[in-house]
Each structure stands twice: as structure tokens, then as C-alpha cells.
Amino acid sequence: MGSTSPTTAALSILWDVIKSHTHSWRTACHASPATPRPEPEGVAESGEREGAGYDGSGHARPTREHVPEHRPTVNLLLMAKYPWLEEARMFAEGFGHGDLPDAAYKRAVERVREAMAKGEHGVSFKAEDVLAEVLSFPTARALCIVVDDIWLKKRWTSAEAARCERLMHAEEEDTLRFLISRSPLKACAADVAERRYGEFKMHIADYLSNAKDLLTDPAWKLVNQVVDGGYVYLDRARTVRLLGQAVYRRLLEGLMGARPVDVRPEGLPESFMRAAESIKRIVAKRRPKRRHPSDSDAWPPCMAAILQRVKDGKDVAHVEKFSLAAFMLARGFTVDEVLGLFSGRADFDERTARYQVEHIAGLRGSRTKYLPPSCEKMRSLGMCVDGGVRCAGKIRNPVQYHE
């Protein structure tokens, strides 16, 4: 390690970061000037808004009273919790590889291994050493880049985003609003008079864009939201969920574009490179097992056809993925085994896929466990094979099939 005391270097760099970020802070809705968004078609009419809290009386709205804004202090603790903040990035960039304390390297390896072992339930937060917690994040990211495995990158990113999401649930509103303002999520606090609809709001177009991976759950569909004046109103829990999704996408985009050559080996300790080699070996063991049906398994022709296309890497429609996942879960496959089947596809996104499969399994949302579409529905969708002539007996759903 370098001769500079990590603590002294940390204090000096932190002071420089704080001085460089004394600009004003505003939430997305209150920033100015900005080009106003057009009112979405069908939302402006009073009749369309009555069900969303608008009385349709035509009375003028009262003057809006904004919720007071108080910018939180960006200190080591906040950066340790949310290392994707710009301040945390600048702080970490002030350290060379040789300046990092041993605890940062050790914690980085620990973060990656926690992500591999537990996925979204992985990476913990260790407040007893916030310096190591801040510096271990970019170091763990570098480990993922050096290992250069798509599954690992997505697994680690998902775990880190879930970690941030868990921490955000416990934050004061001022801190949460600050985090939103620093994220890709275009949301802000609702005005005082609007708070009967929800604590936060975002434009319909932004909601649909940010919630696109959650729309398989009816609770997230636009028709089930409180909408007024072109904005979707959200409670705190839903806002945090969308913020977690936004953080995940930002982290993943940056990580997927990085290559091993982007990590310069100069100054990296041998322990780091040994850890990278160790993680490469662990990755092969930690991948979800791809359990395919054996010859003795009785699969209906429609599901066998979808399964084969998945294995061949061919295009599979969303309704086909849903049907196959629901069928496998009904036949006793676990969530991880279903994910393992799809994990080799180029378009696989573990965080999104896990949410969707757990929803189908009845582990999220309404807790309803879904079955695949009925045989009648499969025929109408063009998914039935040979008109069902290969299915013995009269069955109404693929799960009833037995050879």
C-alpha cells in the first residue's frame, strides 16, 4: 500500500468533494426553466380525471404549496450507502490502487461473493467501516470487469441495487428526495395539496418507461394508478421500488460497456488478481443450474416446442415465456430452476426476470399463483401444436397433460 495514511487522504479528498458540490439542489418538478410536457391525450378532460381525485367542478385550483426542501449532508455515511452518487465516485477517484486500505480490497471481494451467493438478498451494508464501504464499491465493480462474465455482472448489479433499495426505505423524506434528484428517475415530491393522492409524482410517460419491467403485475398497470393532470401519484414504497429499478439500469449500463482492458493492473495487489481468479471459478459453480425435463417427464407438445426454441436461442414471445414459466412452476420446478433455463439468453435480465417469475409463482404482488393459459386460449394464440391431436384425452390446460 502507499505511504499516505488512508484516513488523512480520505478527509482531504472528502473536503475537496464537498467544496465542489455547493451548487443548489432542486427536485425534478421544481427545476426551471423547463419546457412543459404536453398533457397526455384523454387525461385533460375532467370526466377522465374524476376517478383520480379531480372533482370535475371546474373550480380554480388553489395556489400550490410546495413541501419545504432541505438538502441532506453528503458525508461518508451517505456515500457508503449509495456509492452510485457523483460525490462517491469523485471521492473514490482520489485514491490510487496503492492508496486503498486492505479492508477495501477485502470488502470488495466479500461484496461480489455475497452477490453471487444470495443475489438480490445479498450485499449487506457494514456501517462499522464506512471508508472501506465506499472504496470497496468501485473495487468490486473492477473485479466484475476483470472476471468479464455477463451473469456475474448482472447478478452483482442486481444485488447492489437491491441493497440500495432496502436502505432507501428507511431514509427521511429529504434524503429520499435528494437521491431521486441525483438518479435517472424523473420523479419529485407532490405538493402539499396533492399529498392525498400520493407522496411523490411523475409524468405518465416517465412512469410507463420506468415501470415497464413491472407491468406484468396488475398492481403496476397504469389503469390501477392515481392519475391527475398528466401525473401518476405514488406512495413512498412504490417510489423507492422505481428508484431501485433506475439505479439498477444505470449501474448495469455502465458495467456492461466496460471491458477487462479498462482496468489497469498497475498497482493492483496480487491478492486482488488472485481473488479475480477465485471468483472466476466460483462463477461456474454459482450459476443457476439449467434443469431440463428428462425423457421420463411428460411435457405437452406446446410447452416442448417453446422449450426447444428457448434452448436454441430463438425469439420467444412474452406470452410464451409466461406460459412456459407458469407450466414449469406448476410442475414443481423452483424459481431458480426456471431462471436457469432462461439465463443463457442474450436478453436475460435477472432482476427483471426474477421479479416476473416470482410474481407468476405467487410470491409477489397479489400472491396469486398463475397457471399457463388454457388449451382454448393456447389455440387462439396459435401456440397449440397440431391442433391438440397429440394430447390424449380431453384436457383443458397444459398442466393436465400426461403421455
TrEMBL record:
<dbReference type="GO" id="GO:0046872">
    <property type="term" value="F:metal ion binding"/>
</dbReference>
<feature type="binding site">
    <location>
        <position position="391"/>
    </location>
    <ligand>
        <name>[4Fe-4S] cluster</name>
    </ligand>
</feature>
<feature type="binding site">
    <location>
        <position position="384"/>
    </location>
    <ligand>
        <name>[4Fe-4S] cluster</name>
    </ligand>
</feature>
<comment type="subunit">
    <text>Heterodimer of a small subunit (PriS) and a large subunit (PriL).</text>
</comment>
<keyword id="KW-0479">Metal-binding</keyword>
<keyword id="KW-0639">Primosome</keyword>
<feature type="region of interest" description="Disordered">
    <location>
        <begin position="28"/>
        <end position="69"/>
    </location>
</feature>
<protein>
    <recommendedName>
        <fullName>DNA primase large subunit PriL</fullName>
    </recommendedName>
</protein>
<keyword id="KW-0004">4Fe-4S</keyword>
<comment type="similarity">
    <text>Belongs to the eukaryotic-type primase large subunit family.</text>
</comment>
<feature type="domain" description="DNA primase large subunit C-terminal">
    <location>
        <begin position="296"/>
        <end position="380"/>
    </location>
</feature>
<feature type="binding site">
    <location>
        <position position="375"/>
    </location>
    <ligand>
        <name>[4Fe-4S] cluster</name>
    </ligand>
</feature>
<comment type="function">
    <text>Regulatory subunit of DNA primase, an RNA polymerase that catalyzes the synthesis of short RNA molecules used as primers for DNA polymerase during DNA replication. Stabilizes and modulates the activity of the small subunit, increasing the rate of DNA synthesis, and conferring RNA synthesis capability. The DNA polymerase activity may enable DNA primase to also catalyze primer extension after primer synthesis. May also play a role in DNA repair.</text>
</comment>
<dbReference type="GO" id="GO:0006269">
    <property type="term" value="P:DNA replication, synthesis of primer"/>
</dbReference>
<dbReference type="GO" id="GO:1990077">
    <property type="term" value="C:primosome complex"/>
</dbReference>
<dbReference type="GO" id="GO:0006270">
    <property type="term" value="P:DNA replication initiation"/>
</dbReference>
<dbReference type="Pfam" id="PF26466">
    <property type="entry name" value="DNA_primase_lrg_N"/>
</dbReference>
<keyword id="KW-0235">DNA replication</keyword>
<dbReference type="InterPro" id="IPR007238">
    <property type="entry name" value="DNA_primase_lsu_euk/arc"/>
</dbReference>
<feature type="binding site">
    <location>
        <position position="302"/>
    </location>
    <ligand>
        <name>[4Fe-4S] cluster</name>
    </ligand>
</feature>
<keyword id="KW-0411">Iron-sulfur</keyword>
<dbReference type="GO" id="GO:0051539">
    <property type="term" value="F:4 iron, 4 sulfur cluster binding"/>
</dbReference>
<dbReference type="GO" id="GO:0003899">
    <property type="term" value="F:DNA-directed RNA polymerase activity"/>
</dbReference>
<keyword id="KW-0408">Iron</keyword>
<dbReference type="Pfam" id="PF04104">
    <property type="entry name" value="DNA_primase_lrg"/>
</dbReference>
<dbReference type="InterPro" id="IPR058560">
    <property type="entry name" value="DNA_primase_C"/>
</dbReference>
<dbReference type="InterPro" id="IPR023642">
    <property type="entry name" value="DNA_primase_lsu_PriL"/>
</dbReference>
